[in-house]
Specification:
Two copies of one chain form a homodimer. Chain A is mostly helical and 201 residues long. The first copy, chain A, is 73% helix and 0% strand. Chain A contains nine helices and no strands. The interface between A and B is large, with 37 and 37 residues.
Chain lengths: 201, 201
């Protein structure tokens, strides 16, 4: 997959505390990629980030909080909300960013771990739910833009459209290995946008 | 989830060989539910089915072939191709059958295992791909019926519509835990059917 300009992490403002946070979150994703969710620990992440592990306990309490924040932060950096002027191309951009984000080994390892867990009461399953809710909330800006333009009716539910776009991407990644190329995403985005516009009942 | 009439396995015709096959495939799903893909072995399945393990080696060669056949067979029994007279309700029926099938612990455990594997060259990842291709082939009968009725244009690609129906179901099961109730499936089926009819380009 070609590297995209938008994948360059943006410089975070702030002093030492912001740098520590950024280093810890980056170390978390690297640990996830290297050892996976099961083996990840505050000790290992602290070592990797070069900070004391009490800093991590104080700030995140448990590793699920830490992983969630690392994944959301990466999502925020790497999945900027597109505003191209049309719903279909906004959704295509979003789809491409989701695919690029899932190519990060830490993000992908976490996604696969969430999918592997049968016990939906577990902390890692809860992480999957919280990640999804946060993603929908971020992405609904795309639908607000489309509503403002009058492209879709105001009662369209953001979650369903974002799901219609996201689910086939995860389905191909996790299960069927069908291609995740630009043509696929663009056609998918067109279909999803047309559903938003047609408002079937 | 309410048990459905169609979940009663149909009686298979044939003599001892057909019964042995049926017992082995059933034992395979039970083993998958109990011990998972990693621990499943021809020895354990043969013990459970009360047959000699050489029978299994002769017929299936490796456990991935055996698991694939067990899952496809269950899919064939439990996911009959609906023919209700409309694409939207055929898709809704299919969606409900997919959800009922995924509630089988062996099927679900295998699905989660496929999703957890990063190495897409592995035998279990190949199993996921083969299962998917076989399911699309079976389900395309629904689209052939709709084409015969003139409900959708003949050039609609079956894989894309079946994916648009299936992906949100797996996505909710594996990642987001959003509800998989009848209302969800019926709305989803309507949206997917409307995309098939509108033929966006």
């Amino acid at each position: 997959m070609a590297r995209r300009k938008s994948e360059t992490p943006r410089k975070r403002p702030g002093g030492r505390s912001a740098r520590v946070r950024s280093d810890v979150l980056q170390a978390t994703l690297e640990e996830l990629a290297d050892v996976g969710y099961g083996e990840l620990s505050f000790e290992r992440v602290a070592d990797r980030a070069g900070v004391h592990k009490t800093t991590l306990y104080r700030r995140w309490e448990n590793k699920e909080n830490l992983i969630l924040e690392a994944m959301l932060e990466r999502g925020r950096d790497r999945i900027p909300i597109p505003d191209t002027g049309s719903l279909s191309s906004d959704l295509a951009e979003l789809g491409k960013e989701i695919i690029a984000n899932l190519s990060d080994p830490g993000v992908q390892a976490t996604t696969r771990t969430v999918a592997s867990i049968r016990d939906r009461d577990s902390a890692i399953a809860e992480l999957g739910r919280r990640f999804w809710r946060a993603r929908v909330e971020l992405a609904s800006a795309i639908l607000d833009q489309a509503k403002t333009r009058g492209e879709i009716p105001s009662q369209v539910e953001p979650g369903l459209l974002i799901e219609a776009l996201s689910a086939p991407i995860y389905f191909r990644l996790l299960l069927t290995d069908e291609p995740l190329d630009d043509e696929f995403v663009e056609q998918l985005a067109k279909r999803v946008a047309s559903v938003g516009k047609s408002r079937p009942r």
